[in-house]
Amino acid sequence: MAFCIKNLMPLVTCSSVDSDHMLRAAELADKSAGYTAPHPNAGCVIARGSKVVAEGFLYGQGTRAAEIKAVEQAKELAKGSTAYVNLEPGDCHGDDSSVNALIQAGVSKVVVGLRHPLKHFRGKAIKALRDARIEVNVLGEDLQNRNIQEALRACQLVNAPLLYREACRIPFSVLKYAMTLDGKIAASTGHAAWVSSKTSRKRVFEARSRSDAIVVGGNTVRRDNPRLTTRQERGHIPARIVMSRSLKLPEDANLWDVSAGHTIVVTQHGANRTFQQRLARKGVEVVEFDMLTPKAVMEYCYDRGFLYVLWECGGSLSAPAIESAVIHKVIAFIAPKIIGGVTAPGPVGDLGMVEMTQALNLSDVSFEQIGPDMLISGYLHPIPDLMPIIPAMEASAPELMLSASDGPNIISFYKAWNAYGAFSNFSPHPIKMISKRGDYVTWKSVEHYYQAQKFEGVQDFLAQECIERIKSAESPEEAARIGRTLERQRPELVRDKWESVKIDVMYRALKCKFSMYPHLSSLLVSTAGSILVEASPHDLFWGGGQEGEGLNHLGRLLMRIRAELLEDDSGSSRINLSTWSSIV
User: Hey, where are the domains in the chain?
Assistant: First the structure.
């Protein structure tokens, strides 16, 4: 009998059925790509033998877990079944709802593709399931044979951004370019429309929609005046990032139109302050760095919660990005054209290499014909293998660590999948708020309610339509996008005195959330003595900012609610819904 040396447990033979179901789970996990911002991708297949009885996937940040969706779809067929999950369950409900759903449904076995790479989730669900006497097999640990290698690779690929982010402490970064057969990205005049075919450009739009942000340099803005949009009517809109040390950029550029998407200009500290002010008046965000480098920008994007960044820059920026090891993957569209030109630019500038033996080799290279073009992609840095730092099978999950200074403990939260993600207004906790008609309305999250309140009471068809769209939005991210877009494009539709009432609106929604869910109020009370900081580096109103310069109103409201909960030792401050009509 074969044994797993790490855990001294017998290895289980993996069948082709197991492999097929896991491949399907990984395929499901990728279904929301392009519709929502990058997030931990989770899919779940519930099967009885070779027959699939239910499926589910995580749609976006702050939406219902894949396991919960699958269990609800399976109903009584879940009892005695096997659940296949590409990623160890780890949700931000604050109550282990994914694991509980599988346990309560009566599944007999769970096959896990990857242990969760985030430390506050890693190993926790696996241990909980085993403690509930459910058999758990993990690919590469308990299951090791040729049948499973393809499935394991699929699980790694679908969550590559998460694995890179956790291992490298920067977002997964992909360099994309299109070039002619003789290696040129433009003619010697700079003209570049178009190197690749329309079919290839459509693939680029898809790649953009999968990313958190798209990076270009000042040269690209001056030469091409790009829009960097996804060309889709609805769906995720990535941020556009422009890197420029001097800020010698055009007064008018497509990227300064923030109605098409958020634009961030990153520059050297003190550069062209007059132009910075002009950009700010247009709604462009300007971030200054003491030393503007690709690594510094990616570290900033990491702090901002980004998982996936697409680089669409020219050779003068791609070279230092590659040299600083922030580019993990390359995708190159090669068109069957020859343009020539000694001064015509190539996709990568000088890397200081003088011999072919110094060339950087890509791994896991793939080839695909896209219309008349050839797409070649590969990894400059292999997908990180986090197995060596994953605890043994029976090890307990790591404790949540608080970041602390010399003073009080500081607990930071931001993304819904963070350790304290349940505090986020994007967390998947529906709330019931009383309407002006006197009836209770269910909102899918605090963010859904908050965005809709911007237009409450406005007698305009667009405003009322926007409220309905926000209410039906599948994810908090989509609700925020709908509300912010109309607020930006039609500011006259925002309700009177919104700036003066929005803190109270958020307070009432948060108060309802922590009153409806006892486990959340217990979690909040458990942080007593700590300072709560919404760690958004860019939202200086609700968040704490990059260096603590933000007002942190969300953290302040949570500490206010925590104080109110602590005032009543009996817990009577957990208000039931019938009392809300007097305060909402």
Answer: 16-161, 169-339+361-379, 410-569
Whether the pLDDT of residue 38 is over 80: the answer is: yes
The model carries a pTM of 0.87
In CATH terms, the fold of domain 410-569 is Tetracycline Repressor; domain 2 (1.10.357)
Tens-place pLDDT, residues 203-219: 999 999 999 999 999 99
Cβ atoms of residues 486 and 462 within 8 Å = yes
pLDDT of residue 511: 97
548: left (phi over 0), alpha (psi -120 to 50) or beta: left
- Residue 82 contacts by C-beta under 8 Å, 6 or more apart in sequence? 21, 46, 47, 48, 107, 108, 109, 110, 111
Helix pair angle (461-472, 446-453), 10° resolution: 180
- Give how far Cα 583 sits from Cα of 58, 300, 505, 509, 513, Å: 35, 40, 11, 11, 14
Rounded CA separation 70/58 (Å): 10
For residues 187 and 224, give the distance between their C-alpha atoms in angstroms, rounded to a whole number: 12
Determine contact, residues 417/426, Cβ cutoff 8 Å. no
Domain 16-161: what homologous superfamily? Cytidine Deaminase, domain 2 (3.40.140.10)
493-to-361, 460, 489, 497, 562 alpha-carbon distances in Å: 55, 8, 9, 12, 34
- Check residue 15 and give its pLDDT: 75
Contacts of 492 (CB under 8 A, 6+ apart): none
CB atoms within 10 A of CB 309: 28
Q: Quick one: pLDDT at residue 90?
A: 87
Give the separation between CA 562 and CA 305, rounded to whole angstroms: 26
Summarize pLDDT for 418-455 with one digit per residue, the tens: 889 999 999 999 999 998 888 899 999 999 999 999 99
Known catalytic residues are 67
Length of the chain: 584
Please say whether the beta carbons of 47 and 25 come within 8 A. Answer: no
Calculate the CA 474 to chain-centre distance: 16
Q: With respect to CATH, is domain 169-339+361-379 assigned 3.10.20.30?
A: no
